[in-house]
């Protein structure tokens, strides 16, 4: 059962900026809207597992390097 304080946090913004890409460019590369990237970067949207893997694959890193599960506001290492 999911606790309401559980969430997925991400480093999409950091990876995108390091690659000098716009939100629109990343959105096109992974097949979503710019708005999806925007809300994901604000941690207001948890992507599907498929989208998380698409983003990680695009940046060439393991999915855990960009996305992390947090329980009760603390990262679950």
UniProtKB/TrEMBL annotation:
Keyword Membrane: no
Xref: Pfam families: HTH_3
Domain HTH cro/C1-type: 12-66
Gene Ontology molecular-function annotations: DNA binding
Domain of life: Bacteria
Keywords: DNA-binding
Protein name: Transcriptional regulator
């Amino acid at each position: 059962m999911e606790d309401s304080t559980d969430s997925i946090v991400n480093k999409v913004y950091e990876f995108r900026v390091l690659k000098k890409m716009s939100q629109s460019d990343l959105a096109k590369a992974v097949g979503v809207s710019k708005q999806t990237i925007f809300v994901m970067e604000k941690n207001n949207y948890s992507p599907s597992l498929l989208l998380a893997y698409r983003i990680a694959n695009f940046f060439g890193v393991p999915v855990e390097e960009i996305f992390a599960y947090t329980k009760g506001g603390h990262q679950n290492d």
